[in-house]
Amino acid sequence: MPANALDISGLTVRHGDVLAVDGIDLRIGRGETVALLGPNGAGKSSTVSAVLGLLHPAAGTVRVLDRAPADAVRAGCVGAMLQHGGLPSEARVGEVLHLVRRSYPDPWPLEDLVATTGIGGLHARPAEALSGGQRQRVVLALALAGQPPLLLLDEPTSAMDVEGRRAFWTTMRELAARGTTVVFATHHLEEADAVADRVVVLAGGRVVADGSSAEVRSAVSGRTVRLSVTEDADLTALPGVLSAERQAGTAVLTTTDPEATLRVLLDRGIPLADLEVRGASLEDAVLTLTTGAAR
Ligand SMILES: Nc1ncnc2c1ncn2[C@@H]1O[C@H](COP(=O)(O)OP(=O)(O)OP(=O)(O)O)[C@@H](O)[C@H]1O
C-alpha cells in the first residue's frame, strides 16, 4: 500500500496566460486531514483540479495513491466535491445516488450513506429543486458512494447552515478516524483550525506555509490586546505595539510584548476595562502570510 495519498512535485498549472500554480511540492500521507488555505485566486482549486486529472499541468507530476490522477479516479480511489460540481437538473436524487453507487464494486451501504450525509427525505426531489446546502449534501453523498480512501473537497460547506456544517465536519472526523485521507480547500479558517491536522497555505500559486495550525499561527509574531478606552486615552508610543486601532470605543493593539504594553497603559492611568489578550488566530496568520505574496 502506498505511504502517500498524494505526491505532488513541481506542479505548475496555467490557464492561458495566467500562472495559477507555480511549481508546488506537496506530500500528503494516508490518513491525514489537510486544509488548503489562501485568498481568492491563490491556486487551491487549480491544484485540486490537477489532482483529479481534470487539467494537464504545464509542468511537474501528480501521483494519487501511487497512480496517475485519471487512473486513481477511474479506480474509484478518489471522492470529490467541487465548487461547481453539477447534478443533472431533472434527475431525482434517489436515481442519481442509485446510478453512482452501482458503478462501484463496494458501495457505501445506502441507508448508512443517506443517514451520514443527512439527505433522508430528498430521494424524490429533482436536483434542480434542492437548496444550496441540500445540493452540497447530495454531492457529498455521491463523493462518498464508493467509500474512497481519498476525499478532495473544494469549499464543501460554503452553502451549508451552521447545523449542516457541524454535521459535515463530524462526518469528516469519523472518516478520518477510519483512515480516509481528507484534503479540503476552505475560506472558513475556524473550521480548518478545528478539523485539520495540517494546514497548507497557498498564495500566488505557491506554498507559503505548511504545518499544524499551531505551527502556522506561531509563525506570526504578535498578540492582540483589546480593551475599552475613552476617546482621550493616549495609545501612542506603546512598547511592543506594531499596530493600534480604535473601533467604537475599543482599542485593538497588536503587540510583541503584551506585558510591557499593559504596564505602560496602567502607568498612564488608562483602566484595563474589558481586557482581552489573545494569540494570533489562524485567520491573522493566514492574512499576514498571504498579504503581499499574492500576485
Ligand atoms: N478557467 C480559467 N481560466 C482562466 N484563469 C483561470 C481559470 N481558472 C482559474 N483561473 C485563474 O487562476 C488563478 C488561480 O485560481 P484558482 O481558482 O485555482 O484559485 P483559488 O485559490 O481556488 O481561488 P478561490 O478561493 O477564489 O476559489 C486565478 O488567478 C484565477 O483567476
Short account of what is shown:
By secondary structure, this protein is of the alpha/beta class. The protein contains ten helices and 13 strands.
Task: Describe this entry's structure for a reader.
The protein has ten helices and 13 strands. Helices cover 32% and strands 29% of the residues. It has 295 residues and is an alpha/beta fold. The protein folds into two domains: 4-218, Rossmann fold (3-Layer(aba) Sandwich), CATH 3.40.50; 223-279, 2-Layer Sandwich (Alpha-Beta Plaits), CATH 3.30.70. Helix 4 packs antiparallel against helix 5. It has a six-stranded mixed β-sheet, with helices on both faces. The chain has a four-stranded antiparallel β-sheet with strand order 11-12-10-13, with no helix packed on it. A hairpin with a 2-residue loop joins strand 1 (4-15) and strand 2 (18-29). Adenosine-5'-triphosphate binds at residues 15-16, 18, 20, 38, 40-46. This is ABC-2 type transport system ATP-binding protein. Keywords: Antibiotic resistance, ATP-binding, Nucleotide-binding, Transport. Its main location: membrane.
